[in-house]
Structure formats: C-alpha cells, structure tokens
Amino acid sequence: MTQYCNNKTYLRTHTCGELSVNDIGKKVKLAGFIDTMRDHGGLLFIDLRDHYGITQCAIKQTDAVFNDAKHLKLETIINITGEVIARSEDTVNKKMDTGKIEIQVNELNVLSAPSLELPLSVRELEGEDKFPEDIRLTYRYLDLRKRKNHENIILRSKIISYIRQEMTSRGFLEIQTPILTASSPEGARDYLVPSRVHYGKFYALPQAPQQFKQLLMVSGFDKYFQIAPCFRDEDSRADRSPGEFYQLDLEMSFVSQEDVFAAIEPVIYNTFTKFAPSGFSVSEYPFTRITYADAMLHYGCDKPDMRNPLIIEDLTDLFAKSNFTAFKENICKGQLVRSINVPNCSAQPRSFFDKMGEWAKNLGLPGIGYITMVSDNEYKGPIVKFLNENELHEIANINKMKLGDVVFFICHKDANNISHQVRTHLGKILGLTDTKSYKFCWVVDFPMYEYDEETKKIVFSHNPFSMPQGGLEALNTMNPLDIKAYQYDIVCNGIELSSGAIRNHLPEVMYKAFEIAGYGKSHVEDKFRGMIKAFKYGAPPHGGCAPGIDRMVMLLAQTENIREVIAFPFNQKAQDLMMGSPSEVTPEQLKELHISILPRVEKSKK
Asked: Taking the mean position of all CA atoms in its chain, how far away is CA 282?
C-alpha cells in the first residue's frame, strides 16, 4: 500500500527538476529513470530522470548501497533517499536546472524490473545516428522518453489547453459529437464499424463532425467548438497522419465569411505568439486574403508560403506572339509560360545558373531560361537573342524588374506546380524565405466545381455543403465551372491548417448543387437525411472552419513530420507497430457480426 507524507507520496518528496541551492541540507526522496551512470572508482554518479528534469545523485564507495547500485542498468526505475548538497564550483552544470546541487545518496530501492537491453537510445547525443522509424514506433514508449519527443507531447497538451481557454473566453461552447455515425459518400474513405445488432449494417467513424456541427446551429446554439477526433482512411504524408487526427472544429450562426475570420484569427495569432520559439515572429491579423485564382497564378499552388517574397507571373500571351520558337510551339500544344523575378540575383556566379539548369531537369524541364537586367535598356541571358526590345521591356514591367534582377522562365503543361517548385527552391537556396516567422493567409473564392478528367464529370472541388456565391440563381444560370463558393482555407508557411466555408443551409439550393454534381434529390435525402430534413424546419445562415491541431503543433515544435507531435501515431502504412494494429480477429468475433473474409483477389498486371 502506498504511504503518504506531507501530501506527497512516500516514493518522492520532490521531482527531479525541482531542487535548487535553496534546498541544500534537506533530506529528500526522488524517484525516476536511471539516465546515465558514471563510475569514478570511489564515487558513483547517477543522473536520475523523471518527467520534470534530471538530478545528479552521488554514492560513495563506503555507502551500503554502492555495490548494488553499480550493477544497475540504464532506464531501470529507482527510488533514492539522501541529502541535498552543493556542487563544487568547478563541477556546476549550467545546462541543467538542478546543476548547482546533487544528492548524497544513503538509501536506494529498485522500483521496476531490471531494464532489458534497449532497442534504441533514449539519450539524445550529438551526432547520434537516427533510428529507423519502424523501431521508434514499435518501442514508442521508449522513444517518448527522449527529451525532444517528450517536450513535443507536453507542448501539444499546453496548446490544446490554451486553445480551449481562448475559445471559451469568446463565448464558444464545447460540445462533443458522436464517434459512431453514418457513412458519407464524399471525401476520403470511411473507417467502417460493423453493427452486431443490426444485421448487414455498418457505422462509420466520422471524417469530421461536419453534419453534426451544422445541426447544432439548427438546434439554436450560436457558437460551438470541439477538439474533435477525425478518422480518414487515406494515405500518409509528412503533414498528414493516416487513420486519425484532431482539429479545432468550430461553427457559428448568423455569420458571414469575414465574421468567421474575425473569430478565429485572434485565437490562432495568440496561440502562435504564446508558443512560438524564441526569435520567431507571427503575422498580425487580419491575415492577408488571396483569391484561389491569384494563389494558383502568383504562387503556383493553393497553399502559398508567404515567407517567400518571390512572385510568379504569367507570360503565356507574350511568348505566344514572340519569335521564341521553343516556347511558342509548346504553347500551341497547351503549355503555359510562367516567370519568377529574383531581386539582385545577377551577383550569383555562373555556376549558380548552371546548377539551376541541372536541377530543373529533375522536374522534367530541358533546363531553365533566364534574363538579367543590366541597365534600363540592356538585358543578358540565354534567351535574350530570341526576344525584341519591346518584349524585353514588357517582361521587365510585368515582373517589376530592377537593375541586377534575374527573371527565370518555366514553360510546361503543369506550369503552376513546376513554377511553385522553382519558387520554393529559389527561396530556399538564396536564403530569401524567412525561416523564423509564421506567416498566415486566407485563400478565398474557391471554385464550387471542377472537371474530373478521369470520370469526365463535373464534381465538387472542395466541400459539398458550401454555399455557392450567387445562391440558386448562380446555380441555375452560370457555367458550373465559373461558380465560386464561400469556401476558404487558412494557410501557414505553405501548410494548410484548415478548410472552412459558409454553409449551404437552404434545401432547394442544396438539391440543385448536388444535381449539378450528378446526384439526384433521392441521393441527398438518403445520404444526408438528418441534415436536409432539419433544414426544412428552419436553419440560420452559418459557417465555420477546423484548424488542424496536429499541424499547428508540428509548426510550433519545428518538426517536419506530423508523427513527431502525436503520442502514439500510425506509421505511413496506417499500422500501429507497438500494439499490432490492424490485427486479425477470431472466427467467433466474425461469426457474431455475420462477417466472412473473402479470399484476396490479386490485381491483374497489365
């Protein structure tokens, strides 16, 4: 039975990060993991580690516990009793919070089984080789003992706690929505859960609380939020965790797009300001608004990294009229021409431009053309000879060139994506991208629909529950591909934090919106029966968004992989190597659910 003393457990009176010179002379008890051991012959030093820090413990050879202690293995958990003493001035460790003291141990107890040989190092030594991710995830409980990994999870907890306070202080109610729900035909693949009591039927884990949060607005709640778990059967990426993730889900009634922005911007700004690493800046709100069309043109993607000052311009029409045959012929084949102006780049050596040309070949380009402005009327570069004076001046004007600037050219069918990669590369290698800032922007005016080349059909481009700009009239009279929606993304440093929208709360508008995407009225009433029926009893205009918690923590923790900020993540194949999930189940379990496993059908090789 655990004993207690002065409101603290018998196993410890203090934590390993708590003691200081103010405690010298006190008799204390500590408990923790053996982080390191150093045998100096007549003196044994043990660095004892717990959640809070590390304290050095000293055991003299004359002490009764010396012989037992020297045979202990690293990571064994022990409890020590001893006196706090001052370290000599030449042995003070300024890198440790407890570096001015140590514990003179007179009693030691082992609290765990002796640790087995470690499959990975818990200590983070400079220059230490990285362990393979499969080993780290199999032994994640050991991996989380590492200081950086441990701090990532602590940071995540603090961020979530702070966000809750921020949202509550702004009048939002935290309301939990169901985990077992109905399957949705849109979005990623669902995770299905068979029902034991309803033969042949399945629940689905929610990809997001989308319909439920809208129904809360129909229920008369004004401001909802939730740190919501979401489940999607999709492939892994560095900024996406397969299987499950968490988001700050919010919804508001009687709002416009700008009302939603005004509600969430202070929360995000305050959170990033509070938890940003030392020396980092955070862009002030209101955040920059960029239309989807401008984002695709000037940044090459719908997730622009605003830390990079380089801007992309369109020169397709100019080169279509020029005598530069290489570009002109490709434009006739459907390719586009983009340009990127790099200030003061002419100072770079010739080798820089040669390396750029070689790098561009990896993108499928034959090289990369460029021109340099050496005076108001003089330009140099490989393609200058193919352009006349007026064309050169027009290129300079469109790109806002100044003396010493260099404009690079991209001609490609996938010009947006290629120019985005060139812009990112130039910003990185030239040190133009500000690596000590968090810069936010909203991407707005997404197209309501897009054309799917594979199916040859018009499909929703974003969220099918979004309100089209222009409402029913736009749906009835406009080319679907010209219709914009009240849809928006918030982006930070080139990473999408959140999608959001003003919702389509009018049944007749929803029926028509789905009709254009190829879904009949019966489909809407079958798949979205709860929401469409609720709207017929009156629904307020409403909207919201859902910034990703995992991605926010990833940015603030300065890590490039989202799995580093999740306590027990899946690997890239959506497997939990530590728990052995997904796993087979017993025939009895399958029989109870009326499920049989069919033989695997191998895909035929073409």
From this structure: 17
Taking alpha carbons only, the member of 520, 508, 491 closest to residue 308 is 491
Q: pLDDT tens, 414-437?
A: 999 999 999 999 999 999 999 999
Token couple for 245: 């993730």
The CA dihedral of 586, 589, 595, 601, to the nearest 10 degrees, is -20
> In this predicted structure, what is the pLDDT of residue 3?
35
Q: At what angle do helices 549-556 and 147-169 cross, to 10 degrees?
A: 120
Quick one: which of 73, 1, 4 has its CA closest to 37?
A: 73
Virtual torsion, Cα 57, 59, 60, 66, nearest 10 deg: -170
Distances in Å between the alpha carbon of 253 and those of 169, 242, 583, 605? Answer: 17, 32, 43, 53
Q: How far is CA 386 from CA 346, 374, 382, 408, in A?
A: 20, 17, 9, 15
DSSP 93-108: -TTSTTTTEEEEEEEE
Contacts for 570 with CB less than 8 Å, ≥ 6 apart: 236, 241, 242, 243, 244, 563, 576
Instruction: List the beta bridge partners of residue 243.
Output: 232
Closest C-alpha to 566, from 96, 156, 185, 254: 156
Predicted model pTM: 0.92
